[in-house]
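Researcher: Predict the fold of S-adenosyl-L-methionine-dependent methyltransferase.
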Amino acid sequence: MQSPLLAKLTGRLGARQALLEWKWMNEAAASAPSKFSLQDMVRRRCFGEPLQYILGTQPFGPLNLLVRPPVLIPRPETEHWVIKLSETIRPTAQNPCRLLDLGTGSGCIPLLLCHLWSPGSVHMHGVDISPHAIHLANENALLSGISTPSDGTTPRDKNTFGTTLASFLIPTFPDELFQIKPPFDVVTSNPPYIPWKEFLELPRSVSDYEDPRSLFGGPSGLEFYEAIARFIGRKGMVSPDGVVALEVGRGQANAVEELIRTTGRVRHTEIWTDPWGVERAVVGRM
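Model: Structure tokens for S-adenosyl-L-methionine-dependent methyltransferase follow.
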């Protein structure tokens, strides 16, 4: 006989998704019964709260990152292109690179690259406008064993990750931010890219819990890409042989590719497709 709680979950999610989530909820309840109650988890899920926020973690490659509202939950399509980027660029401790992640959120992009690249090969910095995101990204760095030197030093034998609370929409970014020291060899971003019409149609499990600032990309969805293009177009921000890797929304790849090409600094671009056939990342080489 089916559990009443599972039946309730099935009525909300459908049989297949309910069985998957029921399995994960039971695993959580078994591992920490004082923290996780099946009844409470099902109640919260049926109200629309994302399971990742209920469990408090989200796998991202080999990492298991902390997640909590309102910081954007890392998505599998982001994981896919980040892993591909890690296989495309191969920094070494002898020739380390410097990476800037714009709109870092949970820190998922730089922290996964820190984990996948060899020790001492990369020094990364994440920027976000949300104090919640900055705090969570630093927690995830600690959880992932990534060095976050507070004195500004960059140990040769370790990959490092630092953060700055700032908006990269400001035309003068990153002037007067002493923590951000260009030029950078790699610039990554999964910026807000949902246009107004689609934003209004988001499911409540997204719009009610995740920060609108991490979702809404302006009326056209391209506002943050315009800011990124302005940044990489400024002299001295990106190394002469640098790489820019940007996640994009459905149908935006060509427009974003054109934006970064019009800077006059990007020589070659590629569009990467995600496992579901969507053009998901635009990668440019200086």
